[in-house]
Amino acid sequence: MSFTVAIDGPAAAGKGTISKAVAAHFGFAHLDTGLLYRAVGAKVLAGAEPIAAARALDPVDLESDDLRTPAVAQAASEVAVNAGVRAELIEFQRKFSMRPEGAVLDGRDIGTVICPDADVKLFVTASAECRAERRFKELNGKGHDVPYEQVLADVKARDARDSGRATAPLIAAYDAVTIDTSDMTIDAAVSAAIGAVERAKNAIG
Ligand code: CDP
Questions:
Q1: What 3-state DSSP class applies to 185?
Q2: Atom of ligand 1 nearest to the CA of 12
Q3: How confident is the model at residue 11 (pLDDT cuts 50, 70, 90)?
Q4: Whole-prediction pTM value?
Q5: Kind of pairing, strands 29-32 and 4-8?
Q6: Which terminus has fewer CB within 10 Å in the chain: N or C?
């Protein structure tokens, strides 16, 4: 029997770290659905047509090292507005959510659109300033020399685009457990997430 964990939230809120930790703790498979949009964004930057790029997406495309750059992040949030692109990516995500060992999917619309019947839904968030600070450290740690003000502006631009789009906007599912990580250590946030999943598992029995 499958067990699906949906984790949504804005850029750099801690979804990635929490999702990986939850998946490792319970032995579930993990899909970072942002990589799907990043891979399509990267293909579009290279000249491809967005819907055709989404249709032709291969799991191998998700392994590219170049998907974490700020330019690809912006391209991803631009293609993510496209309803045709989103439609092309639904089946892959739903299939993944049925993995027999259990699955964690993280993104923006997992609990609302992709897996509305997920066994547990988490909405991981933090203030824009906290998120920009974290992303700033991450990017500079990887040698991307981007000023903090630029990172904050990018975070806010993506928030506005992700929340304001007509198709699958970023919004907490009504039945999601919200974890605000602004004033939490990553260990505390991971513990809160694991606790919520544990409770949902116990409730099912
Ligand atoms: O890691 P970060 O949170 O910065 O970004 P991401 O999760 O890799 O997602 C990159 C972009 O893809 C986001 O800004 C969203 O616009 C889009 N996305 C989406 O629309 N739906 C998803 N399920 C996942 C990502």
A1: coil
A2: 3
A3: confident
A4: 0.92
A5: unpaired
A6: C
Structural domain including 23 reads 4-204
- Residue owning the nearest CA to atom 17 of ligand 1: 77
In angstroms, the CA 43 to CA 75 distance is 9
Q: Is the CB of 38 under 6 A from ligand 1?
A: yes
- Whether residue 165 is predicted with pLDDT greater than 90 in this model: the reply is no
CATH code (residue 186): 3.40.50.300
| Residue 60 near residue 132, CB atoms below 8 Å | no
Q: Which of 158, 159, 165 to mutate to test the pocket of ligand 1 (most atoms within 8 A of CB)?
A: 158
Pairing of strands 103-107, 120-125: unpaired
d(CA 10, CA 53): 24
Structural domain count of the chain: 1
pLDDT for the residue 89: 97
